[in-house]
């Protein structure tokens, strides 16, 4: 197969940083025969054009024979990309999806839920916490634009306030001019009659969590179905799904709706949202589902070939 038809898979380890950690990047291709060279890049925010540009990592401008690279002394959140090439003249693959390693800053959201009705009057606060006094809140909208809080809200200290009906779906995170990043969270508004309500941030293993199915209008004695990864997990009239002690196996996409209407009417079910589970030793919040959701929207609209897709 021609190299320019392939998309390499990039993995990073660790995903969360302790100060001064070394980060290992591993780039794999579908047909790992001999002759590949691997090229490594850092994803650099470029707000004037509202996307990320790719800067070659030191010592990798001519590529490496090994499918891995170690970045020493990493201290801040960063995004990385790889691609591979072979042949003479070289034929390049597409860029991999961007993969991040994260520092310890956090973004908290109030009210603490990912889904809202399109008819809700929006009043949200997004607060940054970490080792900096110069935070701003950024957003990748579902239409693929990168903007700052001042464009669609008001920034007061470490908090961005959003009010009114003009709120647009997107992925939000905190950032500083020096390159510090927080976790990312996905917030959506739904035209559907139902939303599934659970915390926007990851749930710690062993803790209880309740998922609630909320409706625009009250449903008396209706049987509510809960689904995980499109598989039915519960039918009842309470409109709640309770997990007494979550584990990693509970991680997945959840949605809810009226029994029997899941397939007949898209409006009778909530959108699916990702519930992330974090280990007890990892108390820093990181919403994997936000980037997964954004990857679906952004990559569909902008295209894999641009190399800006998130995972």
From TrEMBL:
<dbReference type="InterPro" id="IPR013783">
    <property type="entry name" value="Ig-like_fold"/>
</dbReference>
<feature type="domain" description="Ig-like">
    <location>
        <begin position="8"/>
        <end position="93"/>
    </location>
</feature>
<dbReference type="GO" id="GO:0004888">
    <property type="term" value="F:transmembrane signaling receptor activity"/>
</dbReference>
<protein>
    <recommendedName>
        <fullName>Ig-like domain-containing protein</fullName>
    </recommendedName>
</protein>
<keyword id="KW-1015">Disulfide bond</keyword>
<dbReference type="GO" id="GO:0007166">
    <property type="term" value="P:cell surface receptor signaling pathway"/>
</dbReference>
<keyword id="KW-0732">Signal</keyword>
<dbReference type="Pfam" id="PF13895">
    <property type="entry name" value="Ig_2"/>
</dbReference>
<dbReference type="InterPro" id="IPR003599">
    <property type="entry name" value="Ig_sub"/>
</dbReference>
<dbReference type="GO" id="GO:0009897">
    <property type="term" value="C:external side of plasma membrane"/>
</dbReference>
<dbReference type="InterPro" id="IPR050488">
    <property type="entry name" value="Ig_Fc_receptor"/>
</dbReference>
<feature type="domain" description="Ig-like">
    <location>
        <begin position="203"/>
        <end position="256"/>
    </location>
</feature>
<dbReference type="GO" id="GO:0006955">
    <property type="term" value="P:immune response"/>
</dbReference>
<dbReference type="InterPro" id="IPR007110">
    <property type="entry name" value="Ig-like_dom"/>
</dbReference>
<dbReference type="InterPro" id="IPR036179">
    <property type="entry name" value="Ig-like_dom_sf"/>
</dbReference>
């Amino acid at each position: 197969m021609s190299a320019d038809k392939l998309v390499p898979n990039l993995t990073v380890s660790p995903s969360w940083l302790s100060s001064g950690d070394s980060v290992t990047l591993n780039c794999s291709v579908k047909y790992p025969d001999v002759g590949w060279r691997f090229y490594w890049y850092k994803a650099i925010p470029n707000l004037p054009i509202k996307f990320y540009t790719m800067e070659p990592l030191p010592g990798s401008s001519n590529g490496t024979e090994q499918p891995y690279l170690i970045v020493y002394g990493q201290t801040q959140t960063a995004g990385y990309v790889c691609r591979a090439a072979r042949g003479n003249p070289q034929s390049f693959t597409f860029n991999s999806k961007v993969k991040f390693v994260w520092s310890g800053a956090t973004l908290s959201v109030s009210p603490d839920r990912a889904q809202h009705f399109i008819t809700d009057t929006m009043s949200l606060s997004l607060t940054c916490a970490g080792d900096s006094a110069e935070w701003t809140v950024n957003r990748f909208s579902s239409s693929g634009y990168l903007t700052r809080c001042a464009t669609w809200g008001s920034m007061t200290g470490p908090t961005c306030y959003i009010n009114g009906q003009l709120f647009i779906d997107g992925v939000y995170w905190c950032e500083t001019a020096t390159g510090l990043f927080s976790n990312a969270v996905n917030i959506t508004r739904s035209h559907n009659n139902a939303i599934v309500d659970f915390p926007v941030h990851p749930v710690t293993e062993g803790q209880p969590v309740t998922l609630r199915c909320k409706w625009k209008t009250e449903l008396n004695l209706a049987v509510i179905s809960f689904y995980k990864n499109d598989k039915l997990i519960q039918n009842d009239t309470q409109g709640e799904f309770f997990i007494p002690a979550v584990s990693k196996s509970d991680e997945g996409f959840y949605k809810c709706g009226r029994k029997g209407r899941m397939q007949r009417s898209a409006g009778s079910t909530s959108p699916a949202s990702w519930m992330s589970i974090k280990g007890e030793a990892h108390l820093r919040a990181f919403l994997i589902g936000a980037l997964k959701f954004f990857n679906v929207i952004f990559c569909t609209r902008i295209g894999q070939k641009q190399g800006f897709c998130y995972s």
